[in-house]
Fold:
Amino acid sequence: MAAEATPRINARYLETFTNSTVRILGRVTSLRGESATIDANGSIQVHLNRDAHLTLNNAAEIVGKVQPDLSVKVFQAMDFGSNIDFKAVEAVVDATHRYKEIFYNAD
Structure:
């Protein structure tokens, strides 16, 4: 069985991927109990799981499901530290959607 595709997105693509599993890399801008906000070319509310250990102002990669309210239910979260080139991250997101046939099934 093939693994489910997890396309890289940012806030701009949330509505397109409602009810889909995605991968988001952004900066943690707030932490409140079991929720956080990340900035990934726009603000995204994420609902953390117990295994998520994020640090304020660090980059974090989120794998989760986009909810109907455009928040993200986290399946996996990884702290990427503070040394991330977000211009490169945006270039990867743009390439993912420009050449979507390589990265995910757009149907």
